[in-house]
Description:
This protein has 203 residues and is α/β, with parallel strands linked by helices. It has a single domain, classed as P-loop containing nucleotide triphosphate hydrolases (Rossmann fold), CATH 3.40.50. The protein is 50% helix and 13% strand.
Amino acid sequence: MKVIGITGPAGAGKSTVARMLARRPGIGRVDCDQLAHASYRRGGPAYAPLVARFGEQVLTPQGAVDRGRLAQLVFSDPQAKADLEDLVHPWVMRALEEEIARHRALGTRWLLVEGALLLSSPHLRRDLFDAFVWLAASEETRRQRLLKAGVPWEVVQARLDAQRDLSPPKADDVYVVDAEPPPGQVAARVLELLVALEKRQGK
Length: 203
């Protein structure tokens, strides 16, 4: 099984492309955002540390973490963002290891792991991955996609501002794919890349 990171800034189309490809036989998908959210659900391993760091201001009246409120805090404060990642990302990596083992047992051919911070988080276990695909699109294209998805304008702008310095590292295992075209075309390009990588690296 090949484990492929699908990464790039917000609005590049990571989730859309990964979902499209995961409809094909032999391709699995893991969303690191979902793993992160699971870690700080009430009773999750990061819940108590997160509340201790950010206070009850990030909780709903029912005691759940208000993701919108948390996002507002961290996107406007680099230190808060770093603290959140230090609390959550180690748990994401543990959960990812479990998902990789599960898919390997299922006989998955390619496991797509999507996440904006895969190549920038210090907690990433790079040895878990065979390669990374960076989806690249202009800021305006990404803004329009996020707005069309219903994300409020102020949240969109905060995300774009926070990720403005995100860029693909120059490394042999990082492949940049133009994500400006419609998602179907981008997914086809990524699939072509996966096939080429599999032939090059061997199954």
